[in-house]
């Protein structure tokens, strides 16, 4: 079963009797609070999810910008969204699935049947489907989550991961090469990491590319079925999208949630620059 649903498939799901909960996870680096965008038009029935407080927690710089929430925090949030045991959760955003994939990654670890709307809210509106402007407050749910965190790796595991597998840096190439760093104190990448940007998996409308193309992209850097693989990005959000795409083609991946924000704020960690792993 695919991790993605199209706008048409979601419309049919909403019309059916399927137990479904929609979550709107609008978040971008340039606009981290997407609530105003949500209120300007969302899929009817969708609950707004503040990524920074419900899909992450706050910590010291040495923990990264978006440390994982506790299982209890995530469970409390999911119940606030109205998620009941056995529900299907569909997450979407307006950033090509970047932030919705964070919800997918966490909820999947918690044992939830979760999908991502392919193309996000833009695909929904492009299909001529309706939007609403209310602030949905759901009836509290009763979902019980499994313990999360098993699909994450620590900073020490990230440091040695390339010795036995493939460590993917999924940021833009200029950040990987160390030419540009808008957020963190040091520019560059983790030694041994290979650069496969998130954008490589999407078309111009932000929809997932075909399976053959995805497989070829990862095979080009040595990632095929059975390859140990982990991904990192700036702060653990975009890397979840790569885990989502890899899962779609049948490859399990870990995520380094601290990502470059943790690595670059931890004294003594080596830094590579340029277009080679280093």
Tell me what you see in this structure.
The chain has 278 residues and is an alpha/beta fold. It folds into two domains: 4-126, Rhodanese-like domain (Oxidized Rhodanese, domain 1); 155-263, Rhodanese-like domain (Oxidized Rhodanese, domain 1, 3-Layer(aba) Sandwich). The protein is 30% helix and 11% strand. It contains eleven helices and nine strands. It has helices at 7-15, 35-40, 51-54, 71-80, 98-109, 120-126, 155-160, 173-177, 211-219, 238-248, 259-263, and strands spanning 4-5, 20-24, 47-48, 88-92, 113-117, 166-169, 194-195, 229-232, 254-255. The strands form two sheets. Strands 1-5-4-2-3 form a five-stranded parallel beta sheet. Helix 8 links the parallel strand 6 (166-169) and strand 7. The longest helix has 12 residues, at 98-109. It is globular. One of its GO terms (molecular function) is 3-mercaptopyruvate sulfurtransferase activity. It holds the Pfam family Rhodanese. This is Thiosulfate/3-mercaptopyruvate sulfurtransferase. It is an enzyme of class 2 (transferase).
How are the secondary structure elements laid out?
Blueprint: E1 4-5, H1 7-15, E2 20-24, H2 35-40, E3 47-48, H3 51-54, H4 71-80, E4 88-92, H5 98-109, E5 113-117, H6 120-126, H7 155-160, E6 166-169, H8 173-177, E7 194-195, H9 211-219, E8 229-232, H10 238-248, E9 254-255, H11 259-263
Parallel strand pairs: 1-5, 2-3, 2-4, 4-5, 6-7, 6-8, 8-9
């Amino acid at each position: 079963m695919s991790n993605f649903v199209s706008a048409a498939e979601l419309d049919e799901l909403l019309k059916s009797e399927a137990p479904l909960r929609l979550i709107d996870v609008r978040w971008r680096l340039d606009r981290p609070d997407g609530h105003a965008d949500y209120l300007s038009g969302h899929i009817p029935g969708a609950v707004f999810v503040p990524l920074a407080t419900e899909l992450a927690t706050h910590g010291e710089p040495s923990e990264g910008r978006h440390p994982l929430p506790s299982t209890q925090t995530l469970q409390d949030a999911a119940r606030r969204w109205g998620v009941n045991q056995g529900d299907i959760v569909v997450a979407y955003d307006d950033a090509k699935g970047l932030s919705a994939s964070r919800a997918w990654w966490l909820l999947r670890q918690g044992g939830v049947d979760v999908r991502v709307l392919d193309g996000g809210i833009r695909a929904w509106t492009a299909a001529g489907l309706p939007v609403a402007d209310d602030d949905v407050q759901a009836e509290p749910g009763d979902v019980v989550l499994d313990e999360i965190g098993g699909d994450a790796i620590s900073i020490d595991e990230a440091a040695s991961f390339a010795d036995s597998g493939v460590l993917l840096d999924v940021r833009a190439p200029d950040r990987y090469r160390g030419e540009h760093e808008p957020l963190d104190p040091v520019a560059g990448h983790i030694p041994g990491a290979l650069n496969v940007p998130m954008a490589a998996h999407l078309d111009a409308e932000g929809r997932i590319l075909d399976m053959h193309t995805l497989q070829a992209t990862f095979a080009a850097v040595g990632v095929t079925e059975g390859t140990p693989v982990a991904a990192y990005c700036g702060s653990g959000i975009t890397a979840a999208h790569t885990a989502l795409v890899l899962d779609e083609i049948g490859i399990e991946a870990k995520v380094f949630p601290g990502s470059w924000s943790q690595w670059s704020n931890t004294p003594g960690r080596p830094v590579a620059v340029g277009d080679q792993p280093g």
